[in-house]
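ENTRY TYPE: paired fold submission
RECORD: A
CONTENT: sequence, then C-alpha cells
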Amino acid sequence: MKINVESIASGKIGEKFEHDFTYEMQSDMNRVVKGKLFVMKTNYGFNVRANCFTNLKHTCSRCLENFESPLEFSFSERFSKENHSTSESDMKDDFRIEVDGNIDVSRAIEQYLIIETPFNTVCSNDCKGLCQQCGANLNQGECSCTPRLSNPAWENLRDLWENKTKPV
C-alpha cells in the first residue's frame, strides 16, 4: 500500500497529514486491515504512525472450534531517503522512501500484525475443551465417558501402591 508524500516533502519540518486506509493483505488469510495513518515530515524523512484494526480468524486451542476476534494495533516507523545510520544492521531495519516520492507501508503493517497476533487463542475464558478420552467438545455437552479419578500417567504407580499395602 503506497502513500504519496510529495505534498509535504518540500514543506517545513513538522508538516503533517492524515490518511484513512483499507489494506487487503494478499496472504493465505486474505485479511483486511483498516486504520488511519499520521505522516509527519522530519529532518531525516518522514515519521509514520498508524492505528490499525482487523478481525482475526482463529482456531480455539482447547476445543478446536473456529472463531473470530477483533485486533487493534498501532505502530510508529521512520521512512528515510538516505542512510543516516552508521551501522549496516540499522540500515536494513529502516523503511525507505521510494524514488517516485511514495512510501510503502504494507511491509510495516504486515510485520506489526504478525507481532500482535496471539499464538494460543481460546474461544472464551470458560472453554471446557475436548474430552481426553473420546474427543467430544465439552462445550456442547457432557460425553458418555466414565470420568477418571486420577491422571492416567499415575495409574500404574497407584496400582503398585495398592498392592504393596495388601498382605502377601
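RECORD: B
CONTENT: sequence, then C-alpha cells
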Amino acid sequence: MAVTLAFIGTNLMEIVSPHGRGLGALFDSGKTNSDYPLMFAVLIALAFLGIVLYYVVVALEKIFAGWAERQPG
C-alpha cells in the first residue's frame, strides 16, 4: 500500500511543482490547455501504473517474505 501512496504523492508534487517533467506535469499541461483527452489518458496511465506497482510489490513480498502471512481484510 505504501508504494501506491508514494506514487500518488509523487505525481501530486509534479502537478504543483513548476519544474515537473513527468505524468503529473503532462496532466497539468492538459489542464492549462483544456486538452481533456490528454488529461484522461494521463489519468488512465497513472491508474495503470499504480496498479502495476502494487502487484509488483505484492510479488516481491511473496518472494522475499513468504513466511509472513497476510491477514484478510
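NOTES ON RECORD B: The mean pLDDT is 85. The chain has one domain: 2-64.
STATUS: closed
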